[in-house]
Amino acid sequence: MNCILTINGRGYTAERGSLLIDAASDAGFVLCRGCGGKGICGKCSVLCYGRLHDGISDDGGERYRLACHTVIDGDCSVYITKDALTAIALPTQKDIKPSGDVGIGCAADIGTTTVVVSKYDLKSGKYISSTALENPQRRYGADVISRIEYGIKNGVEPLKDALMQAICKETADAQKVIYTGNTTMLLIASGINPAPLGASPYTSPTLFDSETDGVYYPPCIHSFAGADLVTAILASGMTSKTNTALLCDIGTNGETALWHGGRLYVCSAAAGPCFEGYGIKNGTPAIDGAINAVGEDGMVYTVGGKPAKGFCGSGLIDAAAYLLSKGAIKQDGSMNGSQYFDGVELCEGDVREFQLAKSAIATGIALLLKHSGVAVQDIDTLYLAGGLGSAVNPCSAARTGLIPSELQAKTVQLGNAAAYGAAMMLTDEAAKAEARRIVSLSRYVDLAADDDFTDVFTDNLLF
């Protein structure tokens, strides 16, 4: 049953029984979810009244409520301030190869947490603009496993509908559209239930390199190594060289590729969303006021130079590295009380979340080295991709064990390589051919099936 949700004086249709934070997102008001919806960070607090309940008071009176814990029971009104809204940092993009086509081309990188849509003029190849937004499927789970589980129980339609409501607004004027993303995200976008990925033998119904409803989907390598890894590799150019190179796309679903001797070894690791600020007590996306860097002297830097309000991924890594250098974090991750950066608390629970995420990435690197027979010192270049890849301090990444210390000086930061690799395909058929070649040269390494996985993961939890 639908009801009227009035936000800042304007009425929207909302479903009775839905969470206020989700209904607001559907209306275009994306609220901060710094704690991942646990109701502990307070960043989605909004002034509201009407038919709402949050487990505290259902009197309908005007007061502040946490949108992530407030359910809509009927007609209600909400006032949302700018401070409660989240905005996601846009990637730096560059032009693509021009073509004779007239019109707009869109490349959408569908991440588990973030969606980025970039527009190009097809004829000139000129970059026009990008839009970044939170993936609205987050209401159904923070990672691909929870989305797969939702698909098993409820079907793919709600997952696809939530995503399409966001993306189609951005691609409505495009003549060509390409989606990239991990295999689960592309299955959902194309209307295919990802349920087969949730049960043995964990095989995707398709690995794409196909067109559906006018949208081209690049090829995936494996059920858990998607087109986003392929397009990032394409953008890096690493497979056109003879040296040994490693690429890490750091994000919720971290993917890693090692190029050596004409063979590409790839893996996927569930790092979780802490690098996007979720699950961290004072976590935040890279919005104004997000702590995005901490100097070796403890100096705090924020996005836009605004007053500090929380840690985004790069700031979290820097803060951990700084505290390690001062002995405030021990090798096992324990702390003697919380630490504060310009009044923003970093607690031991945050460090534990970071340990799990960084161990997932580090373990993927270690096991790819094992399977390829390559020593870490033999790697010529480390490419860091993804939104975080363009912002992370390689020194801090090495200090915390996110990347091997031997690769610190060999690091090249690509930014959102997956999005740019997809954009290359808008006007260049040779780019599509190269993507197919990348897949043909790939060998997927199943980390969980490796006998050393548990020991390596446990060792990498330590700093």
Describe this structure in words.
This protein is of the alpha/beta class. The chain has a domain at 2-84: Ubiquitin-like (UB roll). The protein is 27% helix and 27% strand. It has helices spanning 20-26, 144-154, 157-171, 183-189, 227-236, 313-326, 348-372, 394-400, 417-424, 429-440, 453-460, and strands at 2-7, 10-15, 45-53, 63-66, 71-79, 104-110, 114-121, 127-134, 176-181, 208-212, 215-219, 245-249, 253-260, 263-270, 290-294, 300-302, 310-311, 339-341, 344-346, 381-385, 411-415, 442-444. Helix 8 (394-400) links the parallel strand 20 and strand 21 (411-415). Helix 6 packs across helix 8 and helix 7 crosses helix 11 (453-460). It is globular. The model has no long low-confidence stretch (mean pLDDT 91).
Topology:
Blueprint: E1 2-7, E2 10-15, H1 20-26, E3 45-53, E4 63-66, E5 71-79, E6 104-110, E7 114-121, E8 127-134, H2 144-154, H3 157-171, E9 176-181, H4 183-189, E10 208-212, E11 215-219, H5 227-236, E12 245-249, E13 253-260, E14 263-270, E15 290-294, E16 300-302, E17 310-311, H6 313-326, E18 339-341, E19 344-346, H7 348-372, E20 381-385, H8 394-400, E21 411-415, H9 417-424, H10 429-440, E22 442-444, H11 453-460
Parallel strand pairs: 1-5, 6-9, 9-11, 12-20, 14-22, 15-17, 20-21
Antiparallel strand pairs: 1-2, 3-4, 3-5, 6-7, 7-8, 10-11, 12-13, 13-14, 15-16, 18-19
Helix pairs in contact: 5-9, 5-10, 6-8, 7-11
